[in-house]
């Protein structure tokens, strides 16, 4: 694994508190692994419970966006904006991701045609136990952050 040459903010079409990923573990042309630490400062954190399991779909979507952002940067282009179109079978094995947990988010492209893509996604804990899975459908527009 080589050092990631950009900050997460440089490759995601998100800003400020809407960037939910904490670190890039590894990234390839059609797959990525990221991590998210659940803290009291996490967006959507509910004291006494943690972050609701349904937020996992956004962790997956941002990890997919990271791949597209890296592809754009490697090509010398501005990051393009994408959309989460939907998912089939998002299954969270937990109601909440508890305080202190470090999530490992992994996504791998299953199909794409240049603008539409489908990714197989999962979230695991540090021990490798499955916490959530989904097949996510996304759209990649021609619009960039630069306008």
Structure at a glance:
The chain has about 150 residues and is of the alpha+beta class.
Task: Write up what this structure looks like.
The protein has 147 residues and is of the alpha+beta class. The chain has a single domain (17-142), classed as Roll (Thiol Ester Dehydrase, Chain A). 16% of the residues lie in helices and 44% in strands. It contains 2 helices and 8 strands. The protein has a 6-stranded antiparallel sheet with strand order 1-2-6-7-8-4, with helices on one face. The chain has a two-stranded antiparallel sheet with strand order 3-5. β7 and β8 (130-144) form a beta hairpin. The chain is globular.
Task: Indicate the topology.
Layout: H1 8-11, E1 23-27, E2 31-37, E3 51-52, H2 56-74, E4 80-92, E5 96-97, E6 102-112, E7 116-124, E8 130-144
Antiparallel strand pairs: 1-2, 2-6, 3-5, 4-8, 6-7, 7-8
Shape: globular
Q: Which CATH class is shown?
A: Alpha Beta
What number is the mean pLDDT?
94
Main sheet makeup: 6 strands, antiparallel
How many β-strand runs?
8
Number of domains: 1
- As residue ranges, the low-confidence spans are none
Structural class: alpha+beta
What is the ordering of alpha helices and beta strands?
A: HEEEHEEEEE
Determine the oligomeric state from the structure.
single chain
The fourth-level CATH homologous superfamily is Hotdog Thioesterase
Give the strand line-up of the largest sheet.
1-2-6-7-8-4
Number of helices: 2
Helix content: 10-25%
* Content of β-strand: 35-45%
Q: In the CATH classification, which architecture applies?
A: Roll
What CATH calls the topology is Thiol Ester Dehydrase, Chain A
Distance between the termini: 33 Å
């Amino acid at each position: 694994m080589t050092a990631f040459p950009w900050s997460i903010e440089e490759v995601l079409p998100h800003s400020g508190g809407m960037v939910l990923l904490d670190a890039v573990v590894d990234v390839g042309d059609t797959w990525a692994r990221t991590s998210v630490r659940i803290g009291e400062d996490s967006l959507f954190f509910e004291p006494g419970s943690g972050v609701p399991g349904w937020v996992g779909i956004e962790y997956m979507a941002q990890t997919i966006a990271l791949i597209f952002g890296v592809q754009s940067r490697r090509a010398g282009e501005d990051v393009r904006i994408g959309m989460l179109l939907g998912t089939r079978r998002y299954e969270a094995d937990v109601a909440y991701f508890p305080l202190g947990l470090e999530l490992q988010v992994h996504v791998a492209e299953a199909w794409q045609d240049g603008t539409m893509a489908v990714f197989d996604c999962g979230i695991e804990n540090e021990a490798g136990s499955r916490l959530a899975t989904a097949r996510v459908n996304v759209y990649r527009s021609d619009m960039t952050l630069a306008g």
